[in-house]
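Chain A, query sequence.
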Amino acid sequence: MSTETGMAVEHTVEPGRVRQMWHLLEPLHALLYYAPEAFEEARALGYDVEERWPAYFAWRAAPLGPAGAERIGSAFYSFSPKMVARYVPGVWRTAAPADVLDARLRAVDRAYRAVLGPEVVEGPDLAEAAALARRAAEAAVTAGRPLAAANAELPWPEAPHLVLWQAATILREHRGDGHLVALLAADLDPAESLVSFAAVGAASEQTFASRGWSDSAWSAARDRLTARGLLAADGSVTDAGRALRAGVELRTDELAAAPWAALGAESTARLAGLLGGPWLAVIGSGLLPGENTLGIGKI
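Chain A, predicted structure.
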């Protein structure tokens, strides 16, 4: 159980269950970055929606306030600093973070109604799922987790489907912040984290190119990993490299377990069952990319 500071937790949740909950909740969060309704809301704010990145940086970073490129780059980690600087702080000259936060809830409301359907959005199963997910999110300790803390500090919306989205967002950022801890402990810098992830087959190098690293930066990261014995000369992963990445993912699951331990095995299993329908609807919408930089479905 949690100590008074919340830093020591007895984890009673299997890593597989923790990862399953992430796989179920991540698409419900990520719909914001791909739904046409979200692009419409972003356009109304004044963002260029010919590419996804201006709105992406605004949507995801808005809880941090009008933060600059260094702070946002630190929290996002795997993005090239040059790519972050291309959009930040410019996104705040287009719209203030408070306005972005209001617009992203409107975007989620519209996207959920379009993808899930009003009968699901307003139904008792989704309301129950939202209540359970909120309990898990409120149990997430946010010390040392800036993106989770920023989202947890926001007021809860009233509508259950928006509660579900906000809970999914807190929990995915809580996991993501913990993942950065695992990467740092494994001595994998931002570029190396992507090169090593691609090497174990989480996604193609072309997919990871979306993070903005130059060919020379990618090659330099590969050379550093090769010198450590984590990659072979041809760029393929070694046994040591595969073991290191497996350790990173296991540690990420362990660091993400506390909210589910607090929710309890029975309630967590109930939530998993309730999320199946919405998850299928989002995946079946075709809005999310088939291959992603998170390695969902691969790790």
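Confidence is low (pLDDT under 50) at residues 1-10. The chain has 17 helices and no strands.
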